[in-house]
Amino acid sequence: MDFRDLAVPILQAPIGSVATEDLAVAVSNAGAMGSLAMTWAEPQAAAAAVARIKARTSAPFFVNFVLAFEPKAFDAVLDEGVPVVTLSWGHSADLIARAHAKNVSVGVQVGTVQGAQRAARDGADFLICQGVEAGGHVQSTTPLKTLLPSVVEQAAGLPVVATGGLADGGDLKWALDRGASAAMLGTRFVATLESQAHTQYKRAIADASSTDTSFTVCFDGGWPNATHRVLRNSTLEQWEAAGCPPHGCRPGEEDVIARKPVGDDVLRYDDTPAMASLTGEAMDCALFAGLSVDKITDIPSASECVMRIWRECEFSD
């Protein structure tokens, strides 16, 4: 993957179930690189989504698979001609080889230098260097400012994408100046018009500061033991007030706090984010957000967001 082919060296992080096809298309058509999360998608639905995006943009985009779960739709998206795949929370030389057999580029998210070295050995085409500042589920325990130079040094010539706590043009320039080929932004794109995050969730991101976030394991329903960064809310505060008890001993553990139009109800500690489609107490759900909230104050369109960040980068000292 040559990020010099992008008009704007920005990747939209997959951002789980709040990502939409509209968001991915808007980001890619603005000159950056949009994405969709495909970890829990069924093969037929995943292939159809890729086909629809390809019909709406000729620009590159990618789909992500979290390897803590079975990548059921992996071969389906390859067969449909997805241009790029990224892998996180794991390594798989086999999946990379299968992608390469279809001429699909693969990026691997890493949180350590050792992880970067292994991903390079596995055949990754680029590395995604995640710092602990990131929102959502976070592999890393190291600040990006410490990790990025080390990963760039050990990347053996592979392009490196910086991610974790990045939101504006100054952040993009900082990453490029330190050897990154591009930056990946997640929380910034949650707070855009095209994301399917709940309106109150988007506003909470725009109103928050970094001190309103917490690095925790509170919202572990559906993904046990995975660390994540969220905005503080009543669910987190109840759990902390009780002494952060383990599964089976948490206050309100069986509470149904929200309902989906289709599918299971959302329980208090589930990892389901506050989506626009939920009814009930959506703001008691996981409000995934990174330290970048300090620099997010509005809810623009995705294309406006991309263009603004690039202008800021060009004129940044």
Which key terms come to mind for this protein?
single chain, 317 residues, alpha/beta, TIM Barrel, 3-stranded antiparallel beta sheet, 11 helices, 32% helix, 17% strand
Q: For this entry, what is the oligomeric state of its chains?
A: single chain
Would you identify the CATH H-level superfamily of the largest domain? Answer: Aldolase class I
Spatial strand order of the main sheet: 1-9-8-6-5-4-3-2
- Named at the architecture level, the CATH assignment of the largest domain is Alpha-Beta Barrel
Q: How many distinct folded domains?
A: 2
CATH class of the largest domain: Alpha Beta
H/E series: EHEHEHEHEHEEHEHEHHEEHEEEH
Give the low-pLDDT segments.
none
Protein name: 2-nitropropane dioxygenase
Keywords: Flavoprotein, FMN, Oxidoreductase
GO molecular function: nitronate monooxygenase activity
InterPro entries: Aldolase_TIM, NMO
Structural summary, described in words:
With 317 residues, this protein is of the alpha/beta class. It has 2 domains: 3-194 and 297-315, Aldolase class I (TIM Barrel, Alpha-Beta Barrel), CATH 3.20.20; 199-292, no CATH class. It has 11 helices and 14 strands. It has helices at 21-29, 43-56, 74-79, 93-101, 113-122, 144-154, 169-177, 187-190, 199-207, 234-241, 302-315; strands at 10-12, 34-37, 61-66, 84-88, 105-110, 126-130, 136-137, 160-163, 182-185, 213-216, 228-231, 256-259, 266-267, 279-280. Helix 1 (21-29) packs parallel to helix 2 (43-56) and helix 7 (169-177) packs across helix 11 (302-315). It is globular and about 50 Å long.
